[in-house]
Amino acid sequence: MYIKLFKFDIKNGLLKNKVLLSASLIIPIILCIDYIIKVKGITFGQEVTLSFADYYMYIFGGVKEGVVFGMKDYIPSPTTNFIMPIMWSIVFITLFYGTLNYPFNDMSGIGKQILIRTKGRISWWISKCIWNLICCLFFFSIILGVIWIFCLITGAEISGKINVQLLNSVYNTKIEEIDGNNILMPVYMFVLPIIVTSAISIMQMTISLFIKPIFSFLVTVVLLVFSAYVLSPCLIGNFLILIRFDYIVANGLNFYMGIFVSIFVIVCSIIIGVLKFRHYDIINKE
């Protein structure tokens, strides 16, 4: 049962998912090219050795260029500006939009027939939770693959070394905020975003059981916006802003806290989803 559902979800919800497929390719290509152009502008055309981590940080760093914004909440003032990190937002908004509709489209199609015939509601729900995780894993895998190709093309190092000077220039970060003794991006930072996005995606699907999917998507967007403006581990989107972590800035976000919050959200979402879906009206579902 689980295997058949899993294969069906991968075929129809992932391999035929035009939003995820196109976004995971087009967005990193555009951002990598933009980063190369930006670096040339910053260095005035001088030779600079980039790394895999530099590209990765540019895509997922999460702070808009020209904004001095480190490990503190944004407080509006005449001398302090904060611009929503558009590039960072687009990456994750497209991912969560890509995982929004399939579960409920499936429920209105073949999935409804499977549910009525087998009465395997829990199996169906769990399979969709796994599908969300696989989609997030796929999304990041493609992006990492694009970055790797750009590294080969541009001669960048395949390493986790972060160029601190470029980091400060691109993000306009105060140099004292950077922990100069720890400029290697830990391997776990390539894993955490997958776990965090899986948690948010599953949570979004669970919320869609109570309100229309488009409104649950708006909830997700609002969560991302608040996460950009407010530094708090209670806002799970903070753990998608890589420049806020303790391997870059002192007293930054902690990897283990990100794992804990993500697992908590996943477990709660699955349990709430199971309880709700057991009595969910799939017959009259539009």
From TrEMBL:
This protein's UniProt keywords: Membrane, Transmembrane, Transmembrane helix
Residues spanning the membrane: 20-37, 82-104, 125-150, 183-202, 214-243, 255-275
Protein name, per record: ABC-2 family transporter protein
